[in-house]
Specification:
Elements lengths: L2 H22 L1 H20 L1 H4 L7 H17 L3 H7 L7 H9 L3 H28 L11 H4 L12 H20 L7 H16 L3 H13 L1 H4 L3 H17 L2 H8 L7 H19 L9 H5 L19 H34 L5 H20 L9 H10 L2 H7 L11
């Protein structure tokens, strides 16, 4: 085997490990991503490969990073702020995947592996909930099964993380089942259905709303298949109302102002606005909510300390100010502009490409809606998957079925 072929094999193996880790282990996914990033930097260093690379969303990403650094340096604890900025390094997933996936078929294989890995996490979550003896935090070993088992968390530390990963994977996969007539294997349908049950078992209402919103975002793209989406939503609604009591209660109290978790989030948001008003332009600094929230917590709030405000946009505003929020909004606006433009230019016969684009739009729309009640942009496992999905429009553009994306997009 020649050196070039050996390096390709190494990159493919690392890519496979990364995909498995997205569903099962953050240590595996981040280790694989770090190694893939080093290999990608080597390609960036060489001019002959650098000139062929695309640089998705580089302007808003650069702006977001610059504001994070400036905000950290202007905060009372610059060192801690700079450390908090390191989560933005996960954007490497966007650039690595946009470069690594050289065909739509390869992107589809990656998403198939992701669907299976995440379905395995959903199975673990369903076992946790169904075998859990009660609502207490710990029931002994094995820890993955009996620790904090009242709500499905799979192999992650939090049920919110599993819910975010499941929602993104369900949404990126759904158009492949609805739009791509050449790809509807039984195992993908089974994996998708299992993941949907796993999402329900997390009892995470923000992720449910995000999933529903992402599904609605598919409406313009699916055309003749809209009836399937309508029937699917109706069946899910009936299943929730006819399902277990706790599931039904979680759904029916979603907008109840007297619900404890709803009230607590409202208190956090009010405190967050107060924090922002004192530091409007550059915020309190990255990581500042965890450090300073106790000084702003309302007397009636149960939680006097928190690391985040259960709202990604507000968290960004409070920690990096108006400058940070504008850069953050620019990022999403630029992504949707590119993805929607490409989707409109694709012919109806390009089923695989349209499914990738529609799925990426739906997934990121769902991610942002879910972020209105949880800080998923600060959840490493979830945001790493979001960056991965955001690479899909650039994979489609590279394959020539639509107008090319500029280096600045």
């Amino acid at each position: 085997m020649r050196a070039g072929e050996g390096m390709i094999a190494v990159r493919r193996a690392l890519l496979g490990a990364y995909v498995v880790g997205l569903g099962l282990s953050i240590t595996l996914s981040q280790t694989a991503l770090a190694l893939l990033t080093l290999l990608w930097l080597g390609r960036v260093w060489r001019r002959e490969t650098r000139d062929a690379m695309s640089w998705p969303l580089w302007q808003p990403v650069l702006a977001l990073g610059a504001v994070c650094v400036v905000s950290a340096l202007s905060a009372p604890h610059p060192g801690a702020g700079l450390v908090a900025c390191k989560k933005l390094l996960l954007v490497a997933a966007l650039y690595v995947l946009a470069d690594e996936l050289d065909s739509v078929k390869q992107a589809e294989r990656l998403l198939s592996g992701l669907a299976l890995a995440v379905a395995a996490a959903a199975v673990a979550g369903l076992l946790q909930v169904n075998l859990c003896p009660g609502p207490e935090a710990d029931y002994g070993s094995p820890a993955w099964l009996y620790h904090r088992c009242a709500r499905a968390r799979g192999f992650f530390s939090s049920y919110m993380t599993l819910a975010g990963v499941l929602s993104l994977t369900l949404l990126i996969s759904l158009p492949r089942l609805l739009l791509d007539a050449t790809f509807r294997p039984w195992w993908l349908t089974a994996a998708w259905s299992t993941s949907l049950l796993g999402l329900a078992a997390t009892y995470t209402r923000g992720a449910w709303i995000g999933f529903a919103s992402g599904g609605l975002a598919l409406w313009p793209a699916i055309r003749r298949r809209r009836w399937l989406l309508t029937v699917g939503f109706l069946l899910m609604g009936v299943a929730v109302l006819a399902g277990p009591r706790h599931l039904r209660e979680r759904a029916l109290t979603m907008t109840d102002p007297d619900d404890v978790t709803v009230k607590e989030r409202t208190y956090m948001w009010r405190s967050g606005v107060t924090m922002w008003r004192e530091h409007p332009w550059l915020g309190v600094g990255p990581g500042g909510v965890k450090r300073d929230y106790r000084n702003y917590a309302l007397p009636e709030a149960l939680r006097k300390r928190t690391g985040h405000l259960h709202n990604s946009a507000l968290q960004t505003l409070v920690e990096t100010g108006v400058a940070g929020l504008l850069a953050w909004l620019w990022l999403w606006a630029a992504f949707f502009r590119v993805a929607v433009r490409l989707l409109r230019r694709l012919p109806a016969t390009a089923g695989s490409e349209r499914a990738l684009l529609a799925g990426s739009i739906a997934a990121i729309a769902g991610f942002l809606v879910a972020g209105m009640t949880e800080h998923n942009f600060g959840d490493s496992e979830v945001v790493m998957l979001a960056w991965t999905i955001m690479a899909m429009p650039y994979v489609v553009a590279r394959n020539g079925r639509s107008a090319p994306v500029t280096r600045e997009s």
